[in-house]
Amino acid sequence: MQTFSNKSTDASGKKLLLFLPMRRYVAGGRCKSTARLEGKVVIITGANTGIGKETARDLARRGARVIIACRDTAKAEAAASEIRAETGNQEVIVKKLDLADTKSIREFAERFLAEEKELHILINNAGVMLCPYSKTADGFEMQLGVNHLGHFLLTFLLLERLKQCAPARIVNVSSLAHHGGWIRFHDLQGEKCYNRGLAYCHSKLANVLFTRELARRLQGTKVTANALHPGSVYSDLVRHSFVMTWLWKIFSFFLKTPCEGAQTSIYCAVAEELESVTGQYFSDCQPAYVSPRGRDDETAKKLWSVSCELLGIQWD
């Protein structure tokens, strides 16, 4: 019996040794910056769960005043309370923001600008994925409306404060899925043809194009804009798809944890070497390949113009 036990233990040990390198590979790069953020004000959308919450936790640990901007304020308060208790940083604040409603976005920005005198880092993290066809309060297809248009408007409303507090950073959480997207100007709201997976890809491509054009327009202001792919993360982002939720559970070993997925967001927000880097796309805390559609400046400019028209704003 003792021999059998030893063999069993040896076999388990060998399996563990085989899986550890694989797990380290899945985890990806880590942000190695030790930068402190005392005196800095950060907004993170959708920071009540997943990579947003882990990003908030890290930046709070660095001493930043962190604004958790979320639709579900009860969940956000629970997350903020947890972060305050763990980090000892009491400057973790919840403010209501519904990116599916431009009225809510404007109200959030108005309150923030009245109550906070500074803003140094804006992390556009919130998103929806694979949801059935639905529309925002303003009639936009939900994934495009939340993932792109909502953050487009939020950035527009907060940009002057970022410029006043420069050097400042804008971080847009995109995805590797942008490679599968294209901007269908003839059916931007998916009313003629809707596929929930492709709609997500389109919205993530919009994030990349927005970042590219925003960075071009912000040259010389000391406000940078970069986009990123967090990796395939085990989170509730896939909650709208039963199949994806099931697959995520089965293959969870091969997915990043929310903490691992947050590393590139943190890197883009704090890394000293990125102080003057703008208009780039990162994955695993290093520059990553952007699809040809994501490098199309004419499409980026047209998307900018169409986005302004849809939102009823002038952003020159």
UniProtKB/TrEMBL annotation:
Enzyme Commission no: 1.1.1.300
Family the UniProt entry places it in: Belongs to the short-chain dehydrogenases/reductases (SDR) family.
Pfam families for this protein: adh_short (PF00106)
Annotated NCBIfam families: PRK06197.1 (NF004846)
Keyword presence, RNA-binding: no
Catalysed reactions, semicolon-separated: all-trans-retinol + NADP(+) = all-trans-retinal + NADPH + H(+)
Top-level taxon of origin: Eukaryota
GO molecular function, one term: all-trans-retinol dehydrogenase (NADP+) activity
Keyword Lipid metabolism among record annotations: yes
The protein's annotated pathway: Cofactor metabolism; retinol metabolism
Keywords: Lipid metabolism, NADP, Oxidoreductase
Protein known as: NADP-retinol dehydrogenase
